[in-house]
Amino acid sequence: MTTSTLPTTTKTAVSGATVSAFRVVVSFLFVCHGLQGFGLFGGVDGAGTAVPFGVWPFWYAGVIELVAGAFVLLGIYTRPAAVLCSGIMAFAYFTVHQQLGLLPLQNMGEPAALYSWIFLLIAVLGPGSHTVASILRRR
Predict the structure, then answer these.
(1) Is the separation of the CB atoms in 82 and 72 below 8 Å?
(2) What is the full DSSP assignment across 24-41?
(3) Cross-strand partners of 43
């Protein structure tokens, strides 16, 4: 049996900060992924090509990745936004990647599968202790 030397309030503060840092890093990367659909960071083909406006489902996925990812990044409506991010990545995995092969390593769907599970975890854990919403509540 192991015992912790940290008081409960310190453990809570550390875990809240850890969850916040995890949320910020993951959602920042996700927002960058969404921006690729609009031609930034090399675009969808590495040459700066953007997804044409309104093309289903890719353009809409980029909008969701950008907006919902930003909400998660800032800690505003984190749980519903994270569920939406998780769902869009599950949709991407099963509609785009799954038909190319059984396993994520075979069908290049590893990022979609990981993002789906990571955002589901964020939805369950919540935003952590450091959010824009908590700053606004303090005022």
Answers:
(1) yes
(2) HHHHHHHHHHHHHTTT-T
(3) 49
Structure tokens at 93: 């995995």
The dihedral of CA 42, 45, 51, 56: what is its sign?
negative
What confidence tens digit (pLDDT) does each residue in 34-76 have?
999 999 999 989 899 999 999 999 999 999 999 999 999 999 9
Q: Which residue has the tokens 């995890």?
A: 22
Cβ atoms 98, 109 nearer than 8 A: yes
Residues with Cβ within 8 Å of 60's Cβ and at least 6 positions away in sequence, in order, are 54
pTM: 0.86
Report how far apart, in Å, the C-alpha atoms of 27 and of each of 32, 39, 126 are. 9, 19, 13
Pair 59, 39: CB distance under 8 Å: no
Task: Identify the CA nearest to 128 among candidates 31, 18, 30, 27.
Answer: 18
d(CA 88, CA 116): 8
Domain parsing of the chain, residue ranges: 16-138
Length of the chain: 139
